[in-house]
UniProtKB/TrEMBL annotation:
Native source organism of the sequence: Hypotaenidia okinawae
GO CC annotation, single: cytosol
Pfam family name, one: Rib_5-P_isom_A
Family recorded in the similarity comment: Belongs to the ribose 5-phosphate isomerase family.
Protein name: Ribose-5-phosphate isomerase
Any one GO BP annotation for this protein: pentose-phosphate shunt, non-oxidative branch
PANTHER family: RIBOSE-5-PHOSPHATE ISOMERASE (PTHR11934:SF0)
Enzyme class: isomerase
NCBIfam families listed in its UniProt record: rpiA
Keywords annotated in UniProt: Isomerase, Phosphoprotein
Transmembrane regions: none
Lineage: Eukaryota, Metazoa, Chordata, Craniata, Vertebrata
Amino acid sequence: PLAARPPGRVRARPAAGRRAFTRGRLGGTMAEEAKRLAACAAVDKHVQNNQVLGIGSGSTIVHAVHRLAERVKEENLTIVCIPTSFQARQLILQNGLTLSDLDRHPELDVAIDGADEVDSHLNLIKGGGGCLTQEKIVAGYAKCFIVIADYRALTKNFGGAVELRMAVSKAGPVVTDNGNFILDWKFDRVHEWSEVNAAIKMIPGVVETGLFINMAEVVYFGMEDGSVSVREKQPH
């Protein structure tokens, strides 16, 4: 699959006298605390009893699954979880949640996932964790696709080169859960992303892209000041 990623992350400048890596109340960095706040807000708002949920992948989803497990235990909720990756599957099992798959539960009420980048129209760039194909499949089966991120995902800057993603702890390229390679395309400018997505998918051999176009209904951003900013899809 083709995973589109920016060349870097936008770092919000810390206020005077504040360290860039301020500790949150759970002992993590400011960004991790922001992710936790956004995840909790999204789970509390959108998860109800007797739902089938799609569980995304990545660091933000860890906080969402922890909050989901808390609510299941505290409120005695009946929830079925569909994973998008091996990591998501392990998170579901480790937190004592009910695991299933799309064969048994092809209709999902809500899918919750993170994003590498989010634009003003809620188009997403995903694929940093290499699970973009399964993430897009699961999101496509959901009635509502919810995204959680921290303030660093709010950006409009893209770089301009394509490279094969190489592994860190082994020789050779990264291989995804589906057995595919990943090309990271760093864009040099903002494009019409629906056209880019369609054009890339027409290339022979491409399985999927990390562009999630017109899929997210709402995005929860955990902010530096401890608040949660909510951005909803606007009607065209």
